Amino acid sequence: MSQPRNLLAKVANKDSGAFQQLYDEFANRVFRYALTILHDRHLAEEIAQETMIAVWNGAHRFAGRSKPSTWIFGIARNQALTLLRKEKKAEKLPEQNLVQADPSKHILEREHMSKALEKLSSDHREVVYLTFYEGLSYGEIAEILGIPPGTVKSRMFHAKRKLAEALT
Amino acid sequence: MTSCKSIQELIPWYVNGTLSSHEARYVAAHLAGCEVCRDELTQTMRMNLEIRNAFDALDELHEDVKKGVLEKTSGKSLASFDLGSFLLGLSFGASYQKGRVPIRGDLKLLGRKIRLISPK
User: Fold this and answer.
1) What is the chain B residue with the closest CA to A105?
2) Residue A99 sits at the chain B interface (C-beta within 8 Å)
3) Nearest to A30 by CA among A13, A44, A16
4) Which of A33, A113, A141 to mutate to test the interface with B (most CBs of B within 10 A)?
């Protein structure tokens, strides 16, 4: 599979095959990221859909200064926050469990952690997600969130403390 | 002298391997002589695994969303079919796009998708 940067360049020229590859690479990751912010499956699906459409329409605006993942997650975050503001969903969002029932042997450990993650604020949870699940640097996360790198580190420091408390 | 707090703030990115080589050396040098920060590293590595497992269990995006996105972007789906299971399968699809009918085909092996036919 081509590198996301090459795929984006092809998508800028309306290459549908490249777009499908980019979709396969990112749509589910965007959906999960949106789920960590919104806690609502249907809204997260909407964000995944709108983000991938925005990628198709705006690929020519990708300047190449950042990684494609940083750019795409940034779009997803803006879409999610716009949706939250527009519909004032923050208070109305149901507190759905992030994790589905799973019969694996790790279920207890996994449920324990997922419950701890649910206790974090959205700000803290997305830093945890982008660091440990997406493997992004603090600089890339700062770019996505539009905050200084020091604030990313500080959010992570407090998120870890809260997770540790919730897990004891 | 390096403060433990400044090291502990960097440990999550030491664990995910994204620190610059300079920062990674700075953290490693401190860890060699600080038991408190080594404990923090152990706790963060354990947390990293548990967090990855927890996020791995999140819902997957429904296939229908893809169809909707493709219809609104690269073309209208004309036909598609899937054969097989998660372990081994084939999928083919054709769409209408600006007077053309691009066809794609994928082989799915252990959940990974390998493109057999790419739309031109």
Assistant:
1) B53
2) yes
3) A44
4) A113
A128 lies within 8 A of chain B by CB: yes
A89 shares its domain with A105: no
- Whether residue A78 is found in the same domain as residue A88: yes
- The strands making up B88-96's β-sheet, listed across from edge to edge, are B76-84, B88-96, B103-109, B112-117
Q: Structure tokens of A22? A: 């980019």
The answer, for B64 touching chain A at a CB cutoff of 8 Å, is no
Query: Can you give the residue range of the structural domain that contains A16?
Result: 1-96
Q: Please check whether residue B35 touches A, CB under 8 A.
A: no
User: What is the 8-class DSSP label of residue A13?
Assistant: T
Q: What is the pLDDT along chain B (120 residues), one digit of tens a residue?
A: 568 999 999 999 999 999 999 999 999 999 999 999 999 999 999 999 999 999 888 888 988 899 889 888 876 555 555 666 656 777 666 655 555 666 666 676 665 666 666 655
Closest CA to A131 of B58, B38, B10, B7: B10
Complex prediction ipTM? 0.81
**Based on the domain organization, do A163 and A134 belong to the same domain?**
yes
Same domain, yes or no: A149 and A121:
yes
Token digits for A9?
């360049």
Number of domains in chain A: 2
Give residue-wise pLDDT tens across range A4-14: 899 999 999 88
